[in-house]
Specification:
Blueprint: E1 4-5, H1 11-19, H2 23-41, H3 44-48, E2 58-60, H4 71-84, E3 89-98, E4 102-114, H5 115-120, E5 131-143, E6 154-158, E7 169-170, E8 175-176
Parallel strand pairs: 1-8, 2-6
Antiparallel strand pairs: 3-4, 4-5, 5-6, 5-7
């Protein structure tokens, strides 16, 4: 059984979008869907097209490097994230709240982190070519401006998904890659 199925990350957004009739809320949900799929695919240009010039991200409880300020810094953040090889993720959204200027998502975040990246972070792993499971309950606030662009991505994590990660090596069949 798969531990991470990237294709499930946006299923709650697609379900809500199918039922939503308010045009502004539909625009906001569509923007989130584009953002999520572009991030998973490593499509930097499509991803940045959803981000406002004044964007300011905050990852509460994480190092300052995970909280870029300004569109150029957000772009660099995503370039680094894509280069890290950690784009194989599943955000199992349990709660989705949408209004005219913010979306809130909450659920279990699972990320397949490359062993080599963990080693670069100073985490000792037995196989740098393997993937290891980052897992934490997370809530993300996605504020939007009047043009429907994300002005932030503010995340709160319940616990440190890196704690004990070296003991959570993933097997090849544990990750279902992005569908074409």
């Amino acid at each position: 059984m798969a531990v991470i199925d990237q294709n499930l990350t946006w299923s709650a957004v697609e379900q809500r979008l199918a039922a939503e009739t308010d045009p502004v809320l539909r625009r906001n949900l569509t923007q989130l869907l584009v953002h999520m799929k572009a991030e998973a695919a490593g499509d930097l240009d499509a991803l940045m097209a959803t981000v406002a010039p004044e964007a300011s991200y905050t990852a509460f409880g994480a190092p300052p490097s995970n909280s870029p300020k300004g569109k150029a810094a957000v772009r660099q953040y995503y370039e680094d994230f894509i280069a890290s090889g950690a784009t194989r993720l599943q955000f199992a959204i349990d709660r989705l709240v949408v209004d005219r200027h913010c979306i809130v998502t909450e659920g279990l975040m699972r990320i397949a982190y490359p062993g080599a990246r963990l080693a670069a972070y100073g985490i000792s792993v037995d196989d740098p070519d393997a993937f290891y499971l980052y897992e934490a309950h997370m809530s993300v606030l996605w504020p939007l401006n009047d043009d429907g662009l994300f002005t932030g991505e503010d995340s709160y994590s319940g616990g440190n998904g890196f704690d004990g990660i070296a003991a959570r090596k993933l097997a090849a069949g544990d990750i279902i890659d992005l569908a074409a």
